[in-house]
Amino acid sequence: MSDNSYKELETIVYGMGGTFFGTSEVVEHLPEELKKYPFAITFGIRLSDAIIDEIGDKPTFTYFNHYRSVNALIDQISLKLVLSLQAHGKRAYSIAASQSIPSSPIPYSGVFPHKTGAVLAGLGWIGKNGLFIHKDYGPRVRLGTVLTDMVLPCENKILQNKCSSCNRCVKACPALALTGNLWEAGKERGHVVDARACSEYMNTNLKHIGRGSVCGICIKVCPRAGSGT
Ligand code: SF4
Ligand code: SF4
């Protein structure tokens, strides 16, 4: 790819309100039908601290609205990236900002986890809450991904997990869904988080606030949020 094409992708992300941007090669992590898009563009939006800080033992209506607004922005940025790549004669496939496919081989997941691309792009790591932890903004981010056959510069350098002895999210989770184990590449998600327990808790207890799809407690309590420490 030319420097200009790369710059154009970056400009789309930052110009539309993205906070960070990275690229990686993901072919070995893709299902067979998506392997024709071996590279991933990952970008993210930093969430509002003021809104996250209001979360107590349950999410707020404001947080649910924020979550949906950010998802809509992510989907718009993804669409713009896809159109730009297509205009360059490349194939591109966007992953929905929030998606859980019932037929997915891994329950409670979409066709490709955004956090896989984000970790491979060296933007952060997976925390004990099972979420992507950005190196500067902690878990207070949401991610977008566009897969493409445009050859992108990538190092696939994975950062070290910095959760260390912290267990705040594990102790705060009302569903007891977090095991306290550190994430390790290649291990199943259940090593860190019981996705069924998390989802069932939200569906049973938080349906009236966020339709059972948001909680936010393990984002709110993380000390790595916002400070970059
Ligand atoms: S989203 Fe809520 S229920 Fe799910 S792991 Fe985090 S704190 Fe627990
Ligand atoms: S709260 Fe602590 S253990 Fe949980 S993700 Fe954040 S740093 Fe890691």
UniProtKB/TrEMBL annotation:
Instruction: Tell me where in this chain the 4Fe-4S ferredoxin-type domain is found.
Output: 154-181
Q: Which UniProt keywords apply?
A: Iron, Iron-sulfur, Metal-binding
Q: Which Pfam families does this one have?
A: Fer4_16
Iron recorded as keyword: yes
List, alphabetically, the Gene3D superfamilies matched: 3.30.70.20
Q: Which domain of life is it from?
A: Bacteria
| Keyword presence, Metal-binding | yes
Gene Ontology MF annotations? iron-sulfur cluster binding; metal ion binding
Stored SUPFAM superfamilies: 4Fe-4S ferredoxins
Its protein name is: 4Fe-4S ferredoxin
Q: Name the source organism.
A: Ruminiclostridium papyrosolvens C7
